[in-house]
Amino acid sequence: MQQSLKNNTANISASVLMINGDGIMLSVCGQDYFLSYNRIPWMRDASINHVLDVRMSGKNAIEWPALNIDLEIDSLKHPERYPLVIKRDPLDMAATM
């Protein structure tokens, strides 16, 4: 599924090119990006319909509305600048012991 945003003379779009067991291949603004489930684990169990429903969120971000996920395009270009940090509640840790 492809969603487009008309911006003056430019047509800016986002679409899912491929989904496999390792992650998702996206096309955003004419550039292709692979998002590994190691990087976006919250999408591993998402339904295909929800993953395909990606759209532009302004000029600098994409979103999956049904999944409540937003990503800046810069984080796709430079993932090393956006380390994932998960803050766990101490009670979560006690439940796994």
Structure in words:
With 97 residues, the protein is an alpha+beta fold. The protein has one domain (2-96). 18% of the residues lie in helices and 39% in strands. The chain has three helices and seven strands, in the order E-E-E-E-H-E-E-E-H-H. It has helices at residues 48-52, 73-77, 90-96, and strands at 2-7, 10-19, 23-28, 31-36, 55-56, 61-64, 69-72. The strands form two sheets. Strands 1-2-3-4 form a four-stranded antiparallel β-sheet. It has a three-stranded antiparallel β-sheet with strand order 5-6-7. Strand 6 (61-64) and strand 7 form a beta hairpin. The chain is globular.
- Shape type: globular
Number of helices: 3
Low-confidence stretches: 1-11
Give the spatial strand order of the biggest sheet: 1-2-3-4
Order of helices and strands: EEEEHEEEHH
- What value does the average pLDDT take? 81
Cα-atom radius of gyration? 15 Å
Structure class: alpha+beta
Strand percentage, roughly?
A: 35-45%
Report the biggest beta sheet as strand number plus sense, adding barrel if it closes: 4 strands, antiparallel
Number of strands: 7
How many discrete domains? 1
Distance between the termini: 43 Å
**What helical percentage do the residues reach?**
10-25%
